[in-house]
Design brief:
Length: 318
């Protein structure tokens, strides 16, 4: 769809296409040509491209585009649980449900206006969902592509239940990298983390920036709101800004685990790094009628913008 006249009309900036299973997928473009795709299956972000049309998120060549699993790649919305617990499937279940387009969402905070290229999605629990997670909620997701190409995700969870409930949440984000051994994360140094590879034992990060030479699956706790993922080979840096999401999960399955995953190529761990803004250690509790908001903004900047300058670029989270 094109747009008519001088005014950028967000309806014209969105296009509905069918995804791999005939499920609707919304493509949102900004006037500069950056785009994001979101599937109504899981509210999963399946693509984020810059003005040059370059894909910025990783998707496995072996991804299985079929419910009931989430597609291996992009960004999946993990709610009401990020991680494992006995009653629910790992990282489930919002990412395995069909969402709807929210034509008339309650207004967002005025600071949450990111131009006019956006779409709003909504998930409510089915009767079946309520049997194993008996808490009525509304989960809203705003997906926006800002004028500068930033990808903005705003999730809102509202308790429409008679009783309080608690949940964890995560944006399970697969970044596309040139070579994992050339990548480092800045912003997590000296933090405490739970090591999922060692029964969630708590450790303190020692070194400088985080680099990769083996499998990693950690929940960094109470992290700063801005984190940088530097890709030396591509000379570009992902800047992750978050709000309401104190924790960061860092995951790479490395060689051995990759080989055991049916929906992931044996060598693909080299081109992927998951850096997930999340709320895990302290679950969010909502009383009846209360609402929680979790915001994530992803930007890509040339690596020549060194990390100390991130806060000087005039980019705030909102
Ligand atoms: O296979 P998935 O359910 O998408 O999970 C993939 C990974 O997600 C998170 O990063 C968890 O910390 C990992 O333990 C998990 O293996």
């Amino acid at each position: 769809m094109g747009h008519s006249g001088a005014v950028w009309d967000y309806r014209a900036a969105t296009e509905i296409i069918k995804d791999w299973n005939g499920i609707d997928q919304v493509v949102v473009r900004n006037p500069q040509g950056s785009s994001v795709k979101v599937s109504l299956y899981g509210g999963q972000i399946t693509s984020w491209r810059n003005e040059q049309g370059e894909e910025l998120l990783f998707t496995s060549s072996k991804a299985i585009f079929k419910p009931p699993k989430a597609m291996r790649g992009g960004i999946s919305i993990c709610f009401p649980q990020f991680g494992n617990c006995e009653s629910l499937q790992q990282n489930a279940f919002a990412r395995n449900r069909i969402w709807t387009i929210d034509e008339n969402p309650p207004p967002l905070h005025p600071n949450d206006s990111h131009g006019k290229s956006f779409i709003d999605l909504l998930l409510k629990p089915s009767e079946e969902d309520l049997k194993f997670w008996p808490h009525s909620f509304e989960l809203r997701l705003r997906v926006a592509i800002a004028a500068d190409g930033d990808l903005v995700l705003i999730s809102r969870v509202r308790n429409i239940n008679g009783k309080p409930f608690s949940f964890s949440f995560g944006y399970h984000t697969h970044l596309s990298v040139s070579d994992i051994s050339e990548v480092r994360i800045e912003g997590l140094e000296t933090l405490d983390f739970l090591d999922n590879l060692r029964q969630r034992e708590r450790f303190t990060e020692q070194g400088d920036a985080i680099t990769f030479e083996s499998e990693i699956d950690r929940v960094y706790l109470s992290s700063p709101n801005v984190i940088a993922v530097l890709d030396h080979e591509r000379k570009r840096t992902y800047v992750v800004r978050k709000e309401g999401l104190p924790d960061v999960v860092v995951w790479n399955p490395w060689e051995k685990k990759s080989k055991s995953m049916t929906d992931f190529g044996d060598e693909e761990y080299k081109q992927m790094l998951c850096v997930d803004g999340a709320a895990i250690e302290r679950p969010i509790t909502l009383k009846p009628g209360e609402e929680w908001t979790g915001r994530l903004t992803l930007s890509v900047v040339p690596s020549s913008f060194c990390s100390e300058h991130f806060d000087l670029q005039g980019k705030s989270l909102r």
